Amino acid sequence: MYNELKTSNRILMGPGPSDAHPRVLKAMATPLIGHLDPEFVTIMDEVKMMVQQTFLTKNHLTFVVSAPGSAGMETCLVNLIEPGDEVIICINGVFGGRMVDIAERCGAIVHKIEKKWGAVVTTEDVKKALDHCPKPKMLALVHAETSTGALQPLEDISNMIHNAGGLFMVDAVTSYCGVPLKVDEWGIDAIYTGTQKCLSAPPGLSPVSFSDRAVKALENRKTKVQSWFLDLTLVKNYWGGAKRAYHHTAPVSSVFALRESLRIVLEEGLENRWKRHQDVHQVLKEKLENLGFTYLVDEQYRLPNLNSVFLPEENDEALIRNKLLKDYNIEVGGGLGAFAGKIWRIGIMGESCTLNHVNLLVSALEDIKEFKR
Ligand SMILES: *Cc1c(COP(=O)(O)O)cnc(C)c1O
């Protein structure tokens, strides 16, 4: 026999998932209804409107992919790329690399802008790439690189790619509802995010949005979208249109949770939420630096909600991280790729972005005998 499901009461301060609000967990436990029930159709409409409000967009083609952030990434790429298309993709961490892998599987000719992990892409870098590839179908990059804690400025690059006649695609999984993000004002044509980072909902859904320019590119396709499940021409009739047609069975309980988390964001207000992440980051930063931690990313490009830090010298990062989890129930993230074993990634996202979380982490560190300041 298996035991009843039970987990430890963790405090989530890693790269996601973040702590979920009890209201969100309660919404998940709402009795199921059918996914084509008129009540559920209303809920889908409300979720779509709240996603538009939080993305700051009027895009009609805005909806939620029934799969995690990576599927949002794949949705944008498979729908906008046809075999032989030339695209520019920026890589300054794990997720840019993942975009390249997907784009190549779509048959794209990928021109990479590769930067040191922790750095951001500059307009100079984009200019050079456009010299090599003057007429790209699109340029894709990551707004908030969760593997490094770097925050990528977007507006100038958006103008450059539009002047070259291409689409601008952005990964906003970690930036959404944590730092300023303005889809229409910044001219973003395709964007995807996730639910488990600054939105503080359970993982497994990916809000996405496409501009009219992107919709035109979709309508002008000469080939079928490689993926049946992610083909927007099919999914859009499920999330919109006068008559809802069955496409797949929406994850009803997850949509309930997403709806509640979006309500919480709008109650707080986007601007207040951005400010809260910045303010709590400031306190965390001072306390970490007092303990001897140093930041990976230059202050100017630092993501407030994902703090990538080197431990003070002579600390065994894995040992301390395990102690935090086992003895204090606090999860922080380890490094990825080149930074595995070298840095921590401390997330203060959504419900995990409070002074209480900061104080718990800092006092736990002060309490751990093996931690050397
Ligand atoms: C977490 C993350 C993803 C992937 O999201 P999943 O929900 O894990 O599939 C993509 N991009 C960035 C920047 C992320 O932080």
Short description:
The chain is built from 12 helices and 14 strands. With 373 residues, it is an alpha/beta fold.
Characteristic terms for this protein:
373 residues, alpha/beta, Aspartate Aminotransferase, domain 1, Aspartate Aminotransferase, domain 2, 2 domains, seven-stranded mixed beta sheet, five-stranded mixed beta sheet, globular, binds pyridoxal-5'-phosphate
Account of the protein in words:
The chain is an alpha/beta fold and 373 residues long. The protein has 2 domains: 11-16 and 269-367, Aspartate Aminotransferase, domain 1; 22-266, Aspartate Aminotransferase, domain 2 (3-Layer(aba) Sandwich). 39% of the residues lie in helices and 16% in strands. Helix 10 packs parallel to helix 12. The mean pLDDT is 97. The structure holds pyridoxal-5'-phosphate. Pyridoxal-5'-phosphate is lined by residues 16, 68-70, 73, 95, 142, 144, 146, 171, 173-174, 194, 203.
User: Got a strand count?
Assistant: 14
The total of helices stands at 12
Q: Helix fraction?
A: 25-40%
Strand content: 15-25%
Chart the SSEs and their pairings:
Elements: E1 11-13, H1 22-28, H2 38-55, E2 61-65, H3 69-80, E3 86-91, H4 94-105, E4 109-114, H5 123-132, E5 138-142, E6 144-145, E7 150-151, H6 155-163, E8 167-171, E9 190-192, E10 206-210, H7 212-219, H8 232-239, H9 252-268, H10 270-290, E11 294-295, E12 306-310, H11 317-328, E13 330-334, E14 343-347, H12 355-367
Parallel strand pairs: 1-13, 3-4, 3-5, 5-8, 8-9
Antiparallel strand pairs: 2-10, 6-7, 9-10, 11-12, 12-14, 13-14
Helix pairs in contact: 1-9, 2-9, 5-6, 10-12
Bound molecules: pyridoxal-5'-phosphate.
The site of pyridoxal-5'-phosphate (PLP) has 14 residues, from helix 3.
